[in-house]
Amino acid sequence: MPRPISATISLPSLSHNLRTVAQQLDRAGVAAGRPRPNIWAVIKADAYGHGINNAVRAFGQAEGLAMLDLDEAVRCREAGWTGPILLLEGFFEPADIAILDRYRLTTTLHCQEQLDMLRSARVADPIDAFVKLDTGMSRLGFGAADYRAAYEQAQAAQARGVLNALGKMTHLARADDDPLATQHQLQVFNQVTQGLPGKVSLCNSAATLTPGLWASIPDSQEQWVRPGICLYGSSPFAGLSASELGLRPAMTLSARLISVRSIPAGAAVGYGHLFTAAQPMRIGVVACGYADGYPRHAATGTPIAVGGVRTRVLGRVSMDMLVADLTPVPQAQVGTPVVLWGEGGPSVDEVALAAGTIGYELLCAVAARVPKIVI
Ligand SMILES: *Cc1c(COP(=O)(O)O)cnc(C)c1O
Predict the structure, then answer these.
(1) Is 283 a member of any domain?
(2) pLDDT score of 127
(3) Which of 117, 243, 250, 309 is most buried, judging by how many CB atoms fall within 10 Å of its CB?
(4) Active site residue 271
(5) How many CB atoms lie within 10 A of CB 195?
(6) Other CB atoms closer than 10 Å to residue 18's CB: what's the count?
(7) Where's the Alanine racemase C-terminal domain (predicted)?
């Protein structure tokens, strides 16, 4: 028998989350008197650990898919996706341009080196591109001073038949926690791109789910939002849970108890003896550890569900096992199901908070050795 651990991926929940985001955008569009933006469903990092093929199946209603690995983009085409695909980092070397051409991929253009590579490129069909502006993230994109010259170079590539439709793009650093910083980035975007033709793309999940944000951009051009994490049922906001946002967990990481024991007062648990029992108690060993992608920094008290009852992790997480407090689950025995996060257990965001990280990291880090079950 295989080790009793698995990650269940729910296609209906993925589709539900996309629908929930689209409906919220519809309402914001009605309020603003304009059509809702198109959605690039972001499926980078193997669809945040949920599997590219699953994402392609579940996100059929999205207008486009966005990711950054060329191989993943090709896999989307091979899985039958015929709509637009955006490469969030664009291409990395001249040979990649032939792949963009062959698989009809939309590229981001964020640096002069990419524009230089386009200068000598030949394509069968011109390629769609978004020219990225750095409005205050200091990651990818042309600076405000260089942006318009970069855009003109892209227009020259368009005139040469290398590029097709051009768009304008930026990325927000604090859409989840600082409206003023975001407002400033949007102002920079509007100022620098003013009068340049093309579609607009700015919003990650937090910005997409902030009412009124996308509609604050002048409405002359088609807009594309880029939600990622919310589609997987994790919240982009620290103070607002995924369920409050109407989102459903798309991944449930579950395992079973493989050992149950009673320990006396004073017994210490696990490596480093980080937890010591104050009174006699029952504990259970769960077939999940950091080699499965469960965070090693999840401290005593991290929520976990055993037999449908919420309890806590005790002591340090080992490579292949962790220990749960069975005090509130006296009926638990070897074989009792355990939910680490997801449907019937704590949210991935609660576990992430207890481990000092974010849901994104946990979803992406589920190990290859954990079998995925698709429902
Ligand atoms: C990852 C990413 C997104 C999606 O971000 P979420 O916070 O997961 O919604 C959008 N745009 C870019 C450029 C990204 O890298």
Answers:
(1) yes
(2) 98
(3) 250
(4) yes
(5) 6
(6) 21
(7) 250-375
What is the pLDDT, as a whole number, of residue 344? 98
Q: How many domains does the chain have?
A: 2
- Are 326 and 260 in contact, with CB atoms under 8 Å apart? yes
Instruction: Please tell me the distance from the alpha carbon of residue 16 to that of residue 347, in angstroms, as a whole number.
Output: 17
pLDDT at 218 over 90: no
Residues 226 and 255 in one domain: no
227 lines ligand 1 (CB under 6 A): yes
pLDDT tens profile 48-69: 999 999 999 999 999 999 999 9
Residues 222 and 293 both lie in one domain:
no
Residue 236, ligand 1, Cβ within 6 A: yes
CA distance 222 to 167: 9
Of 44, 132, 168, 199, catalytic: 44
Mode of pairing for the β-strands spanning 106-109 and 85-87:
parallel
Helices (H), 194-266: 205-208
Asked if the structure places residue 3 within a domain, the reply is no
Task: State yes or no: pLDDT of 219 exceeds 80.
Answer: no
Range of the domain at 49: 12-232
Which of 168-182, 217-231, 240-254 is predicted least confidently? 217-231
Ligand 1 site, residue 168, Cβ cutoff 6 A: no
Task: Determine the number of helices (DSSP H) and then strands (DSSP E) in the chain.
Answer: 11, 18
Flag whether 319 is marked binding: yes
Q: What is the CATH number of the domain that holds 305?
A: 2.40.37.10
Write out the DSSP string of 302-335.
-EEEETTEEEEEES---SS-EEEE-TT-TT--TT
pLDDT band at 216 (very low <50, low <70, confident <90, very high): confident
Residue 331 lies in a domain: yes
The pLDDT tens digits of the residues spanning 300-345 come to: 999 999 999 999 999 999 999 999 999 999 999 999 999 999 999 9
Question: Atom 6 in ligand 1: which residue has the minimum CA distance?
Answer: 228
